[in-house]
């Protein structure tokens, strides 16, 4: 473990002054170091802020386990699906300017997706199966809350085998227009608005932003979000002169023992995938998350209005939405979903302690963040630990951080 004394993204304060129990904080390091010792975690950066102040900032393990190099506080990580909240905020900026509407059909901005039909549940994935008309069109809100009828692909020999399995694969294979053509050639999995299913919706939303803003997603977010918030290390590709700061994963999956791969954040993709292609640091993402807790503002820079943040972080899933697939994820059972983030409905359920109104999201690479407004708490965890172990780490972190509150 290496204590970090510089490069604080927020003003520092003594943990005791922020309501942390000094005798309980060491449990965090003990548990994470134990994960490293058993080869379940290569290294990590953890930052915890409360009441707008940084109270905990530690690094653990190795930047590159093979080289035995210590983890620096400014290590860069592929944040995977933690890209999604960034893109959601970008879209809400355009909504506030009257250039984008939440309940507008997606085809209004991307005519390539006009007239998409639906594969009935009883025929799901069957080649040549009959389709039915959509009862309503998918909207921008559907993209944000994963109710558009899209998915991350299902089936191995069926029709949906053509579906890209991940944001990373899609943006590696196709340009943005080619990706949209692939989606347009397939029916939706289910009627828009009827079911929650984790999906490529935020990749489509990124292309909506590009169509409305008239520029690449990476440029839009850099100009409108990253630079205004001082997120100097957040981008869609690790700059060539910063590759030495890019963290590595373990060679073998700690659960299966099989070789594991990780998205190469140093290689540009064919389009800026809004669902999972950004890279960042713990410090940068902490500033973004603190802006959300502050309801749209940080250090005198207002990114979104208070009402837009309230809208984003409220539960958007009513009783008409089937939550069966949401409940398949062990750490969001019992949650609802807002725009780009999961939203906790009550202090119970979820498989880990928490507060009603807490919101969070994570990345398949092992990254994780959450914001607890009732506790004025922001936590950002950066690690390259993909695979099933990441679900355990999310629950572990919740328990470790919240037990340290006095």
What does this structure look like?
By secondary structure, the protein is of the alpha+beta class. The protein has 2 domains: 2-81 and 232-403, DD-peptidase/beta-lactamase superfamily (Beta-lactamase); 88-213, 3-Layer(aba) Sandwich (Beta-lactamase). Helices cover 26% and strands 13% of the residues. The chain is built from 10 helices and 13 strands. It has helices at residues 26-37, 83-96, 140-145, 167-173, 176-184, 201-213, 217-226, 282-293, 306-312, 389-403, and strands spanning 2-3, 43-50, 53-64, 69-70, 77-78, 279-280, 297-298, 301-302, 335-337, 342-344, 359-362, 368-372, 377-382. Strands 1, 2, 3, 4, 9, 10, 11, 12 and 13 form a 9-stranded antiparallel β-sheet that branches. A two-stranded antiparallel sheet has the order 5-6. Strands 7-8 form a two-stranded antiparallel sheet. Helix 2 packs parallel to helix 6 (201-213) and helix 2 crosses helix 7. The radius of gyration is 20 Å and the shape is globular. The two termini are 24 Å apart. Residues 1-6 have low confidence and may be disordered.
Q: Would you list the SSEs in sequence order as H and E?
A: EHEEEEHHHHHHEHEEHEEEEEH
- Tally of individual helices: 10
Q: Total domains, how many? A: 2
Q: What's the rounded overall pLDDT mean?
A: 93
Overall 3D shape: globular
Please give the CATH class of the largest domain.
Alpha Beta
CATH topology of the largest domain: Beta-lactamase
Q: Report the radius of gyration as a whole number of Å.
A: 20 Å
Under the CATH scheme, which architecture of the largest domain would be assigned?
3-Layer(aba) Sandwich
Please, what is the CATH homologous superfamily of the largest domain? DD-peptidase/beta-lactamase superfamily
What's the count of strands? 13
Largest sheet: 9 strands, antiparallel
- Helical fraction: 25-40%
């Amino acid at each position: 473990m290496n204590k970090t004394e510089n490069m604080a993204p927020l003003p520092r304060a003594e943990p005791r002054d922020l309501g942390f129990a000094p005798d309980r904080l060491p449990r965090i390091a003990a548990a994470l170091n134990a994960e490293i010792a058993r080869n379940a975690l290569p290294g990590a950066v953890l930052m915890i802020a409360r009441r707008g102040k940084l109270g905990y900032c530690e690094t653990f393990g190795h930047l590159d386990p093979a080289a035995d190099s210590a983890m620096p506080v400014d290590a860069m990580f592929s944040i995977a699906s933690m890209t999604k909240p960034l893109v959601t905020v970008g879209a809400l900026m355009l909504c506030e300017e009257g250039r984008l509407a939440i309940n507008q059909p997606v085809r209004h901005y991307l005519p390539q997706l006009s007239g998409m039909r639906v594969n009935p549940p009883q025929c799901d994935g069957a080649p040549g199966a009959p389709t039915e008309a959509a009862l309503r069109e998918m909207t921008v809100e559907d993209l944000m809350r994963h109710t558009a009828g899209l998915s991350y692909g299902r089936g191995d020999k069926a029709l949906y085998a053509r579906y890209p399995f991940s944001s990373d694969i899609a943006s590696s294979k196709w340009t943005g227009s080619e990706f949209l053509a692939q989606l347009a050639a397939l029916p939706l999995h289910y009627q828009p608005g009827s079911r929650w299913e984790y999906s490529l919706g935020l990749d489509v939303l990124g292309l909506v932003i590009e169509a409305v803003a008239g520029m690449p997603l990476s440029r839009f977010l850099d100009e409108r979000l990253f630079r205004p918030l001082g997120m100097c290390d957040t981008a869609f590709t690790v700059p060539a002169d910063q590759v030495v700061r890019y963290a590595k994963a373990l060679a073998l999956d700690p659960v299966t023992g099989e070789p594991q791969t990780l998205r190469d954040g140093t290689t540009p993709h064919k389009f800026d995938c809004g669902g999972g292609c950004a890279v960042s640091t713990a410090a940068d993402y902490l500033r973004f998350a603190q802006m959300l807790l502050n309801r749209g503002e940080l250090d005198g820079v207002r990114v979104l209005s208070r009402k837009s943040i309230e809208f984003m972080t409220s539960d958007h899933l009513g009783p008409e939405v089937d939550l069966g697939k949401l409940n398949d994820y062990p750490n969001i059972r019992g949650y609802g979903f807002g725009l780009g983030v999961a939203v906790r409905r009550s202090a119970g359920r979820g498989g880990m302690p928490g507060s009603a109104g807490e919101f969070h999201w994570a990345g398949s690479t092992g990254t994780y963040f959450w914001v607890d407004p009732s506790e004025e708490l922001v936590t950002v965890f950066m690690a390259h630990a993909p695979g099933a172990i990441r679900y355990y780490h999310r629950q572990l972190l919740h328990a470790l951080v919240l037990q340290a509150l006095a």
